[in-house]
Amino acid sequence: MTASQENPPPAEAIPSIPSNTRLHLALGFGVLVSLGWLCALYFLLWQTSPCPAGDNQSLWGRLACRTPNELGDFLAGAFAPLAFFWFVLAVLLQTLELKSQREELHATNLSGAQQAKWAKVNAKIMQEEQGLKVMEALISKVSYRLISTPIFVEFLQLDGDRKSPRRLLNVDDIKGSALLHKSGEGFIS
After folding, report:
1. CB neighbour burial string for 68-93, b if at least 16 within 10 angstroms, e if fewer
2. How many CB atoms neighbour CB 181 within 10 A?
3. Which residues pair with 156 in a beta bridge?
4. Which one of 80, 113, 126, 151 is at 20 to 30 Å from 57 when CA atoms are compared?
């Protein structure tokens, strides 16, 4: 594979005619060719020899005097090229439509792949958010238990080898930050 086959140019870089415009151009071309063919057919029919009944016959009179076999052969020969032309034109239009659908499917596939990637990222973010919510709930529960449970601090007076409690103090009574320092016989806040 060459480099140009591996990395085709982006669709924006290739100038193209919109498919509706192509369709209108193709149909217009088909109508013009058909009208041209009918004009040529009229001219050829006018140049054919007249029927033996008279020289001054109309176009329809020239067709009417033919035998059914001659009329069938004439019509088949006259309209077969026109039918083939419209068949080729229909195939070309179908090719354009299939190309357009193929491009749309390719764009849809790219979009689907991008959406799948974003869905994975979104699922990961949601999972992390769920984990954060669980952690937040646990922290809230633990902090509520810590706040609602009274904590008492016991200050001891040292009398030799014996320890005797001096005072029990509820930590909720302490406002702000308390510094415990040594003063005399025990610790005082």
Report:
1. eeeeeebeeeeeeeeeeeeeebeeeb
2. 8
3. 165
4. 80
